[in-house]
Design a protein that fits this description.
The chain is of the alpha/beta class and 379 residues long. It has ten helices and 15 strands. The chain has helices at residues 26-34, 136-148, 166-176, 193-199, 216-224, 274-280, 282-288, 305-312, 317-337, 339-378, and strands spanning 6-9, 15-18, 42-49, 54-58, 61-65, 79-84, 90-95, 101-105, 114-119, 123-129, 152-158, 181-184, 205-209, 249-252, 258-261. The strands form four sheets. A six-stranded mixed beta sheet has the order 12-11-10-13-15-14, with helices on both faces. A five-stranded antiparallel beta sheet has the order 5-4-3-6-7, with no helix packed on it. Strands 1-2 form a two-stranded antiparallel sheet. The chain starts with 5 loop residues before the first strand and ends with a helix.
């Protein structure tokens, strides 16, 4: 792999050298200057996280280094300070604060922890293939996470040459991803690749998200200009593909930008994504704020702007239910991570159960009394 080093000059005229091919820009150099560490001598960037070592770009080198001994665990895309150890060899001294972070809730249901997938990306490319049915809920969920990461979402439609319904899928995606740019590509023909490059800022990093078999590897090969990723077949029955990418890794592109590929993501449990929901469902939240009553439950209350919008067709009921589902997920996650909120939630449910029990007993007593009165009248 061809690598090189570069330098950026900060306001104190101290020169910092860093890996230009891996996104080291003057803005990144300034970020390092704002977060100095004792004994640190040079910046680096985590290119890949392996089981026991990190692959780190530093200057003109790619180094296999042990994990940092202290501080937060590093992930692909992290910027790190390097310095000598006791033997004079380079080691990771610390991880810089992340300017953006793509996270999801860990796969097991009871977890309230985040799994960080990528760091310090400028764009999140949500890959949507046209050769399979469009899953609206999945697209919305992934875009919520993309907005919440602090990066800019971009929808990338792939395999446009394979499906006669491409125009229909593109139209639905544009409608679904309101406020997000959409690029249509055909990696086999090279169509749309230049337009995709035009959306990525100079020296910027883009991470690709999408299910297995979505065409990410083929798209990466088209962007790099040579085969750097293996491609696999997609089953025609269920549209599932083999995971041809098994780890997250930074790939330098010829135009100076950096691409981060990720393995196919089957699910995207949200983690603390209130900001992302606000970006993706801003229209829904605006409608809810227009209801006559501030505590409107959006069921049968008079003057409910949400129900009126659904009835008129202005708001899809599916979209409204997906919004509620995501809100419930975040509320449940908050309860698991906040003991006080969990206790309050349990008290609330206990009160509801007690009230329901009282109502049930009252209803049974009233029914018995009615039968008794009815029997006395017949006698």
């Amino acid at each position: 792999m061809n690598t090189s080093s570069g330098s950026a000059l900060d306001s104190t005229n101290i020169q910092i050298n860093g890996p230009l091919l891996y996104g080291f820009t003057p803005a990144v150099a300034e970020h390092f200057q704002k977060h100095p560490l004792p004994r640190a001598t040079e910046p680096g960037r985590v290119v890949r996280v392996d089981r026991n070592l990190l692959l780190v770009a530093a200057g003109a080198d790619l180094l296999h280094l042990p994990y940092p001994l202290t501080g937060e665990a590093a992930v692909t895309g992290d910027w790190v300070w390097l310095g000598p150890n006791r033997a004079g060899e380079r080691q990771i001294l610390g991880v810089l604060p992340r300017r953006s972070e793509l996270s999801r809730k860990r796969a097991f249901e009871d977890s309230s922890e985040a799994q960080v997938l990528a760091a310090n990306m400028d764009m999140v490319g949500v890959v949507v293939p046209v050769d399979r049915p469009l899953t609206h809920n999945r697209l919305e969920r992934t875009l919520v996470a993309a907005w919440d990461s602090g990066a800019t979402p971009l929808v990338i439609i792939t395999k446009a040459d394979l499906a006669e319904v491409a125009d229909d899928v593109v139209g639905k995606v544009i409608l679904q991803a309101a406020g997000v740019d959409v690029v249509t590509t055909s990696a086999e023909n090279g169509d749309g690749v230049d337009e995709l490059f035009a959306h990525i800022p100079a020296g910027g990093t883009i991470v690709l998200l999408g299910p297995s078999g979505a065409g990410k590897s083929t798209l990466i090969n088209a962007m790099v200009g040579r085969e750097v990723q293996h491609t696999g077949e997609v089953r025609s029955g269920d549209f599932k593909g083999k995971h041809t990418t098994t780890s997250r890794e930074l790939v330098p592109l010829p135009n100076g930008t950096v691409l981060m590929d990720t393995p196919g993501v089957r699910g995207f449990g949200l983690f603390d994504a209130e900001d992302g929901i606000g970006e993706m469902f801003g229209d829904v939240e605006a409608l809810a704020s227009q209801c006559r009553f501030a505590d409107c439950a959006h069921q049968s209350e008079p003057g409910c702007a949400v129900r009126e919008a659904i009835a008129s067709g202005m708001l899809e009921e599916r979209r409204w239910h997906n919004y509620l589902k995501l809100q419930r997920e975040l509320a449940a996650l908050a309860r698991r991570s906040d003991a006080a909120a969990q206790r309050a939630y349990q008290r609330e449910w206990h009160q509801k159960v007690v009230a329901a029990g009282k109502s049930q007993r009252l209803a049974e007593r009233e029914t018995a009394e009615r039968k008794d009165r009815s029997g006395r009248k017949r006698r």
